[in-house]
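Hey, can you fold this?
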Amino acid sequence: MKNRNFFVHARSLTALGGIAAALLLAPGCLFGQAIQAVKITPLGSKTGEFCFWDRAMVLEDPTGVRMLYDPGTTVAGSTDPRLGSIDVALLSHVHSDHIGDAKLNQDPDATDAKCDPSVPTAPVVPNSNLAEIVGAKKAAFVGAGGVASFLTTRIAGLGGVCGGNPFSSAPIVAPPPAPCISPLFFGGKRIVKRAGAESGVQISVVTAKHHNGIPPTLLSDPLKTDLGLQGLTPEAGEPVGYVVKFTNGLTVYLSGDTGQTTDMSTVIREQYKADLAIINIGDAFTTGPEEAAFAMNNLVRPKSVIPSHANEVATSGGKVNPGSRTAQFLGLIEMPGYVPLSGRTMQFDSQGHCVAGCM
């Protein structure tokens, strides 16, 4: 009855031209209070589109903690104006399209910006796009041990382990005074919080079934040549996905590159209760659209899904291309799916419902 009376009263105020009613019913507000939303901004090759190489995203907590996920080759290094401040970097694995052995070398806002595999890039070897960004932004890298170890040799100005003790469960205070590494293993968690904030963002790594070979472009000789002659690739430990719990209560699953796993049900859904999933749909090397849709509908069961890593020009003019993998995936899932258009910020509430910016 209270809800019914509220809406009747709100309609009355609207009829009278009351400003209060507009505030009460405005998107992103509830009873005059702004919803504490998590902001997710894809950083792709071309503004307003979902392109072939797009993987990178910035996720921002209501407290201001900003995390960069898998920058790949569609971020123009640390000077990319779309980045802003970065407190934390997450990396699922070291393949070049995720760690970035090159950086974007075009204006994503240009009308003639490329969206297909021919996107122009500039090399950032042997350090990688991710390592250059972490060093310049003085960010904390939170990730699996093998990748963390590899990055310690690539990040300029590295201040060592975040907080000085890899075994400490004390929160990482952002921004750190210098770029730092925070190794994280399965079953553990790290918390990152802004200075003065009461709570922080909780980060866990989860299973991803994939390959984690270091690109030859990020190796130096004689190792690079010797391994090449043998047809071998060194691996930087295990690839991972992430589960991130934000301070508004939203839990997000970042799949990384993976196939279907039973952990998607027992760990991602039952233990962490993920509300929003960002899932790769590229096929052949990762879950395809049908497999990813099965994982979402039957294993993870989030409230909302964002497809990623489609390995195609998925949109034209911001609209999903008919017959694309992205269109197929969106047509198969049983929950709302939102396309990650580059530069377009999506906002999600504590339950994984999109409250602004979603297509």
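Oh, and this one too while you're at it.
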Amino acid sequence: MCKRANTRYTHGSLLAEKSVIQNWVAESRMEIDSARLMVLQAAWKMDTVGKKEARQEIAMIKVIAANMMMTVLDRAIQTFGAMGVSDDTPIARMWRDGRAMRLADGPDEVHKMTIARRELRKWQS
């Protein structure tokens, strides 16, 4: 997305100079780094206290990472325009594969339900 934005000239300027593209790049960077930190947190917890104790973090990252990937890829597709949905770039394949990943280990809704149940149990008196 960044490479395209820095090389695609349209409507009198580079895409990289457009505020909407800058916003997409900033949002994408923050979301990618946030998901990475959550992965590291889940991995650390698995290493230190075991998989069973890290179930909440594992479930959360399954939802967060897959959704972040789809959101960032959607922005990349928009940045590339029609070429983004063609097989001329890897973006369309990444989007197709990413969408399947949101179902592979159970749908987001199931993960969210278990996350919520575990969280709510912490607050039962």
